[in-house]
């Protein structure tokens, strides 16, 4: 059902595929029947399909009529028309009429044929065959009238010949002969009766000058042409089914990737951390591919298998072979085999996907951390770590593959065993005349088609468990409730001023037990710079992430222009924020596309201004292509400082009401840092600026400095105020600046105040 829901938007195409599958199955199921006809009718019966002759000599016409009942004789006479040459010709040669006539006339034709053969052998002085006297002995004496009893006694006394007795009492002889031969015919089987009657027709055709060889060749060509037409139609149908199935599955894959990608874009950092980046990549690539492959198999094989199986069963029943029980045995053996194999392999598929995640995670960490690995000579250790993850996956895959390798040889053993069983049973029935060779061939083919139908399903069952796990993993992503979402009637920031206020904010991570922030309370106003400083792990970056709602506060409130951020739409908040993350992130493209990333409509002049303020022009102008210079994925072709300056330029080009610099000056040298902040000051004089930093030099000029220690506010004020009343700030300053620099900074603060 997880798969079928993906087909909802593609039902017209799915129904079209099913329609062509029916056409394909119809052709596939017709070919064995035509093959049987080629063998039984085309070769064994010289192309003669029916026991009722289309043309017959007057002698044979009258002879057969003699051995018919009055009802049969009436139909016989109405079916034929006498021609000028004395022969008789069938009036209606339609298939339906011929089949009806065969049911009525096969027995009297065969009786006449057998008596004629016996008479010919007697005339040739052969001892084989049954004389009329033998049939006369079979006459029931009790059923005779007085005259017949007297005449029969006369035959026995020699005073009356057999011919005279037959002429006087032919109806009695006919009934006796029909009863006697009817029992023998019934024991022959329908197949042998048909063939024997057709043998007589073949002789009759030769007798009256019909070219049997031409008739046979014509039948073989016409049947072969029909088979070729069926094969071509089946091929065209299979091509169309393959094309449409591929198109549907590709569309489903595209839609799933879209859904997963769009869902992930809605995720907050909490959901990203819950799944991990490596797992989300696997789910949107490998897992989607698994589903896409199974969708193709479902449409091409699983949908076709029941159609072919049901059709094959119907065709087998129509053969009246009496061997239907063999199919039941074959299917039961297959189902038992598949059940055992899947019970062994199924639990391993879930483990396999988790191990794929693990290999992906380790590979990603190693590839992104190659410089560090080389710097610390950890290549050997990382190889060992990857080897452990890789071998774990290999071990599970080998187990499942080894289990599944038993499937094909065991399936083939079942198929060949069934073929041998059919031939063994059929040989006895052929010997009894109950089955023809062509019918046996058709039965084997239909049985193999039925078995192959189940084989198709079992082949898909190899992939299905793994794809089921993949579908569950994708559903896990799609069904995950986003922790941060807009209210139904979320407000918009109209003409925002950019006043940011933290009101006694507490925060803990979704999977955390304790608060990482407690009692955070401050106001950041437009035209002022608010700096947040503290030791590593004090919660500085967490404060910065709460403003654009990457996380929601646990307790307390954050407002922008007096409106709780939870009441505002996320787009409205982020449209008015220029965020520079702690780690500079660039996208593949050009320098221009990265600077204009948050403001696509920004002019080249605005882009140039942003780059100038960010102190990025000095390295951009050195490049041959200037702003059209390419940026590789992740910005790996620029240095850390250049990457950070482009990230700052990107925020400036957006011209937002609120700037958040999350320790974004740490990769810059002191000179560039000072020049950048000096150039930035006029640009942001009407905006709210929040700077997260570890360096005292970065926050000296801030109007308000928030000091954090272990997630708590331990100080708030200017540099001068904090040097007097905040011990934590004083320790940070003392660790970074000399005594002379501290005195100079305090004097600079005094001059600024004056």
What does this 3D model show about the protein?
The chain is an alpha/beta fold. The protein contains 29 helices and 15 strands. Strands 9-12-13-6-14-15 form a six-stranded mixed β-sheet, sandwiched between helices. A four-stranded antiparallel β-sheet has the order 5-4-7-8, with helices on one face. Strands 1-3-2 form a three-stranded antiparallel β-sheet. Strand 7 and strand 8 (563-564) form a beta hairpin. Helix 12 (277-302) packs antiparallel against helix 14 and helix 22 packs across helix 24. The radius of gyration is 47 Å and the shape is rod-shaped.
List the helices and strands and how they pair.
Blueprint: H1 11-44, E1 55-56, H2 58-66, H3 70-79, E2 80-82, E3 88-90, H4 95-123, H5 132-137, H6 146-157, H7 162-168, H8 170-188, H9 190-208, H10 212-266, H11 269-275, H12 277-302, H13 304-319, H14 324-368, H15 370-375, H16 379-405, H17 407-431, H18 437-478, E4 500-507, E5 517-524, E6 529-534, H19 540-546, E7 555-560, E8 563-564, H20 570-575, E9 577-580, E10 589-590, H21 591-595, H22 604-613, H23 617-620, E11 630-631, H24 640-654, E12 658-662, H25 670-683, E13 688-693, H26 696-699, E14 704-709, E15 712-717, H27 719-725, H28 727-736, H29 739-753
Parallel strand pairs: 6-13, 6-14, 9-12, 12-13
Antiparallel strand pairs: 1-3, 2-3, 4-5, 4-7, 7-8, 10-11, 14-15
Helix pairs in contact: 1-10, 1-13, 1-18, 2-4, 4-8, 4-9, 7-8, 10-12, 12-14, 12-18, 13-18, 14-16, 14-17, 14-18, 17-18, 22-24, 27-28
């Amino acid at each position: 059902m997880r798969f079928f829901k993906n087909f909802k938007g593609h039902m017209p195409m799915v129904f079209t595929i099913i329609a062509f599958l029916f056409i394909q199955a119809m052709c596939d199921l017709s070919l064995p029947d035509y093959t049987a006809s080629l063998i039984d009718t085309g070769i064994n019966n010289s192309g003669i399909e029916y026991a009722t002759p289309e043309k017959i000599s007057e002698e044979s016409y009258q002879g057969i009529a003699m051995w018919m009942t009055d009802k049969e004789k009436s139909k016989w006479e109405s079916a034929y028309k006498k021609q000028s040459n004395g022969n008789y010709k069938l009036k209606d040669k339609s298939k339906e009429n011929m089949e009806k006539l065969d049911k009525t006339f096969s027995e009297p034709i065969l009786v006449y044929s057998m008596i004629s053969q016996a008479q010919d052998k007697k005339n040739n002085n052969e001892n084989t065959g049954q004389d009329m006297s033998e049939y006369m002995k079979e006459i029931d004496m009790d059923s005779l009238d007085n005259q017949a009893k007297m005449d029969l006694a006369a035959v026995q006394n020699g005073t009356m010949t057999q011919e005279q007795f037959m002429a006087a009492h032919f109806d009695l002889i006919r009934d006796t002969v029909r009863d006697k031969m009817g029992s023998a015919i019934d024991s022959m089987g329908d197949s042998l009766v048909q063939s024997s009657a057709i043998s007589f027709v073949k002789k009759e055709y030769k007798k009256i000058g019909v070219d049997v060889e031409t008739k046979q060749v014509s039948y073989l060509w016409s049947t072969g042409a029909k088979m070729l037409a069926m094969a071509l139609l089946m091929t065209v149908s299979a091509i169309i089914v393959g094309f449409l199935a591929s198109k549907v599955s590709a569309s489903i894959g595209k839609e799933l990737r879209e859904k997963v990608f769009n869902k992930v874009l809605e995720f907050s950092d909490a959901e990203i951390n819950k799944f991990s980046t490596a797992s989300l990549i696997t789910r949107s690539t490998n897992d989607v591919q698994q589903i896409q492959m199974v969708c193709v198999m479902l449409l091409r094989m699983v949908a076709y298998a029941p159609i072919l199986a049901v059709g094959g069963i119907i065709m087998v029943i129509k053969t009246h072979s009496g061997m239907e029980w063999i199919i039941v045995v074959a299917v039961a053996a297959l189902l038992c085999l598949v059940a055992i194999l899947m019970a062994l392999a199924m639990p391993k598929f879930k483990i396999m996907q988790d191990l794929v995640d693990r290999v992906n995670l380790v590979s990603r960490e190693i590839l992104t951390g190659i410089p560090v690995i080389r710097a610390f000579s950890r290549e050997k250790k990382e190889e060992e770590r990857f080897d452990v993850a890789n071998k774990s996956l290999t071990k599970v895959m080998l187990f499942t593959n080894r289990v599944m390798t038993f499937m094909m040889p065991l399936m083939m053993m079942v198929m060949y065993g069934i073929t041998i069983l059919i031939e063994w049973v059929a040989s006895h029935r052929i010997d009894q005349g109950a089955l023809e060779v062509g019918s046996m061939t058709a039965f084997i083919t239909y049985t193999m088609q039925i078995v192959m139908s189940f084989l198709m399903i079992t082949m898909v069952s190899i992939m299905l468990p793994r794809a089921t796990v993949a579908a569950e993993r994708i559903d896990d992503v799609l069904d995950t409730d986003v922790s941060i979402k807009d209210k139904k009637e979320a407000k918009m920031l109209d003409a925002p001023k950019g006043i940011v206020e933290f009101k006694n904010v507490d925060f803990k991570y979704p999977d955390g037990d304790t608060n990482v922030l407690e009692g955070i309370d401050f106001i950041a106003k437009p035209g002022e710079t608010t700096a947040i400083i503290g030791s590593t792990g004090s919660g500085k970056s967490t404060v910065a992430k709460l403003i654009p709602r990457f996380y929601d506060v646990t307790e307390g409130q954050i407002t922008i222009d007096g409106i709780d951020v939870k009441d505002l739409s996320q787009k409205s908040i982020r449209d008015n924020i220029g965020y520079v993350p702690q780690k500079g992130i660039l996208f593949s493209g050009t320098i221009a596309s990265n600077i204009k990333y948050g403001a696509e409509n920004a002019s080249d002049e605005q882009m140039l201004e942003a780059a100038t303020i960010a102190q990025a022009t000095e390295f951009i102008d050195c490049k041959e292509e200037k702003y059209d210079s390419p940026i590789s994925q992740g910005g790996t072709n620029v240095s850390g400082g250049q990457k950070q300056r482009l990230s700052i330029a990107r925020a400036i080009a957006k011209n937002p009401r609120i700037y958040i610099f999350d320790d974004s000056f740490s990769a810059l040298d002191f000179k560039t840092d000072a020049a950048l902040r000096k150039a930035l000051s006029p640009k942001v004089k009407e905006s709210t600026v929040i700077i997260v930093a570890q360096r005292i030099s970065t926050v000296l000029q801030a109007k308000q400095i928030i000091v954090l220690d272990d997630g708590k506010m331990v100080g708030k004020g200017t540099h001068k105020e904090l040097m007097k009343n905040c011990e934590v700030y004083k320790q940070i300053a003392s660790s970074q600046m000399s005594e002379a620099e501290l005195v100079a900074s305090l004097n600079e603060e005094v001059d600024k105040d004056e």
